[in-house]
Amino acid sequence: MVTRETLHAAVEDRRDDLVAFLEAFVGIDAENPPGRRYPESVDFLADAMETRGYAVDRLPVPEDVVEDHYPDRTAYPRENVVGRVGDGDGPDVHFTGHFDVVPAGEDWTHDPYDPTIEDGRLYGRGSSDMKSGIAASLFAGDALLATDAVRGRLTQSMTCDEETGGFTGLGHLVDTGVLAPENTDYCIYTECFDSSRICIGHRGVLKFRVVTTGEKAHGSMAHDGANAVMAMNDFLTRIGEYRDRLHDRRTDLPVTPEASRVADISATMIDAGYSENVVPDRCTAKFYRVLVPEESVADAREEIEALMAATEAATGTATEYEEIMFAEPTAVPDDGVAATTYLEEIGRFHDDPGVVVSPGSDDQRFVVNDAGIEECIVYGPGLLDQAHVADEYVPIEEVVTATKVMATATADLMGVLEA
Description:
Layout: H1 4-13, H2 15-26, H3 38-51, E1 55-60, H4 63-69, E2 79-85, E3 92-98, E4 116-118, E5 121-123, H5 127-146, E6 153-159, H6 170-175, E7 186-189, E8 197-202, E9 204-213, E10 217-218, H7 228-246, E11 264-272, E12 278-279, E13 282-291, H8 297-315, E14 318-327, E15 330-331, H9 337-346, E16 354-358, H10 364-370, E17 376-378, E18 393-395, H11 396-413
Parallel strand pairs: 3-6, 3-7, 7-17, 8-16
Antiparallel strand pairs: 1-2, 2-6, 4-5, 5-18, 8-15, 9-13, 9-14, 10-12, 11-13
Helix pairs in contact: 1-5, 1-11, 2-5, 5-11, 7-8, 9-11
């Protein structure tokens, strides 16, 4: 058995090492797209786990799997890594997180890949989303191993491509049985929601493009053609009306921020035309449909198809639908074992531990929807409002606190935490 105080002290003893590890990790530019420096990221993580005594498996993603999901990125190798430690005589607690990051973009005042620490904050791309979550779970494991508090098996998986759907990352681990009910009792996905709250699910998303097809003509004889842009205008008007109706669909689940507790749709990209004097025969628009947990992707598709049929009837032009990706909504009960255990441990640092649902989709859906593991929550030290922004940072104290919570919660789940 082990006390909270012993585990907290073990984390504090490793504070400087934790920060140094996170600095080095954030310094690896694993931007996705396109998927840069994945092998270097896996080298770094595999070495960190091997030196700690984990049995490590590097899991390259087959090229045909990559091509199915990302046909334009097969030149960039995809790889995941999994480490396991413990004798298996007890529950398996599986921490998982992604090491890819979105492109840094412009307008930084700090170098995104040369991390700096100022006023207790570590700045760099991926510091909040979500390399700090991986660092916290790894160092929570250090505290558990140092105090002989691993009863069962502790699993750490670090995956690629979450920022573009996760299909070749955690989705692939689920598809291949690396993460399954037979080998996982509790799963903690270490995405960024800060140390004061757990996340029990997320809204869904449907990304798609619609093409309106007309007939080209000279601009001076437009009557000879069929203008695809005008047909798209009709469709966009219907999308606007549909969006108003979607805003009446409200979930009672605690999606944060509160304004995101409704269904939504946005037109995000549009492309058409050859020249100012040519009536365009094609117009393409891309859309981002967000689903509340009570909706399904299948129903959303049907609604879009009905709008397309209405545009065809009104304009006499054809429409085409092409799906880019989808993620079904996900939600687990807030009174599960993992959820209540984490809330109790969070309460030792924060007065009002929170329960939230994410406004956007993430890899939790693979564990819950596909693997069928309901004991899966999201908990990590990163700040949600720092995800994908310039000058992204994570407060160091958040990382340390989350590490302590992960350590004591894991000990409790494994049945070795003193009351």
